[in-house]
């Protein structure tokens, strides 16, 4: 709903801008108002692209834990979250949004299982604490999912932001803590 209102508002602005340009040129080509409106119309796609790009996550090699399997999982999670963000930003329909959300949640659970198995295999000393962070995240996502079922529009943006923020903080923080230990053990 919110995206529809934004799209309507932008469309209305563009129509009004064209009207101002037409009326402004009736007063002569030296009138600055239509030229300013033309400049604004030209800038809209650039501004939109910059604003939208901030809503997506990009892989950065600083996030690497140095274990190919885990890095590949993290890259896939980022891609899945970006797919969800696309579903939220653009009118793709509820079915696509639900599918994108399900893929993120399912792959997150799968990734946590793989990561935990790797930590157990090499007897990572902080395994239980790390596992607790995974369980807490899954529980929080479960709360969001319940809220999503009750009020999709109000929840999806908050849920998407949570997923992006949590994943980056987790990879850049908690996951980096096991990186050296597991690499030294041969992972």
Task: Give an overview of the whole structure.
With 187 residues, this protein is an all-alpha fold. The chain has helices at residues 2-26, 32-53, 68-89, 94-121, 127-150, 152-184. 16% of the residues are buried.
Total helices: the number is 6
Number of strands: 0
Radius of gyration: 23 Å
| Shape, per Cα inertia axes | elongated
Q: Main β-sheet, in a few words?
A: none
Percent helix range: over 70%
Structural class: mainly alpha
Query: What is the succession of H and E elements?
Result: HHHHHH
Give the strand content: under 5%
List the helices and strands and how they pair.
Layout: H1 2-26, H2 32-53, H3 68-89, H4 94-121, H5 127-150, H6 152-184
Helix pairs in contact: 1-2, 3-4, 3-6, 4-5, 5-6
Compact description:
The protein has six helices and no strands. With 187 residues, it is mainly alpha-helical.
Any key phrases for this structure?
82% helix; 187 residues; mainly alpha; 6 helices
């Amino acid at each position: 709903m919110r995206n529809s209102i934004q799209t309507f508002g932008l469309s209305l602005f563009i129509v009004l801008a064209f009207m101002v340009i037409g009326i402004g040129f009736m007063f002569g080509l030296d009138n600055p108002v239509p030229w300013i409106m033309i400049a604004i119309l030209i800038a809209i796609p650039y501004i939109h692209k910059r604003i939208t790009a901030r809503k997506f996550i990009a892989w950065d090699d600083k996030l690497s834990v140095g274990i190919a399997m885990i890095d590949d999982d993290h890259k896939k999670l980022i891609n899945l979250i970006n797919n969800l963000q696309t579903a939220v930003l653009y009118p793709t329909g509820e079915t696509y949004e639900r599918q994108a959300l399900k893929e993120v949640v399912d792959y997150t659970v799968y990734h946590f299982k793989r990561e935990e198995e790797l930590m157990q295999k090499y007897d990572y000393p902080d395994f239980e604490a790390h596992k607790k962070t995974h369980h807490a995240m899954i529980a929080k996502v479960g709360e969001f999912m319940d809220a999503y079922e009750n009020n999709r529009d109000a929840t999806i943006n908050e849920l998407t932001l949570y997923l992006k923020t949590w994943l980056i903080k987790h990879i850049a923080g908690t996951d980096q803590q096991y990186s050296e230990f597991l690499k030294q053990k041969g992972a």
